[in-house]
# Entry
Amino acid sequence: MNYLIVSIHDAALPYLKQLREITSWLEQNSIHPCCIKVIPNYLDCWNILDHRVFLDWLLEEKEKGNEIIQHGYSHQAAEKQRGMMAHLRNRKLSFIAERPPPALTQAQLLMAAEDRGEYF
# Structure
């Protein structure tokens, strides 16, 4: 038997139509459960607590057996992370920044920089 692990990233109210289409297609094709990674306050403009329709959809998906998890908070840190990776490359840590191993976390990158005496 083959297994497929599906994660839907960046779930936020502006994408509700597309999210419904994706989860519907997955369900129709017997691909379940999936993990829906929710941004609870997308760009500090779309707080899920202010939008009952989105919360209802999340609850429906949870009842279907899908996993709902938080994926950041406002999705504004991406630019900061890109800047950190550029800084690491400039600090001659390109061996880490260019091809990080899958298990390497942001914290491990920072610890590697500190071990080399490089601070942000």
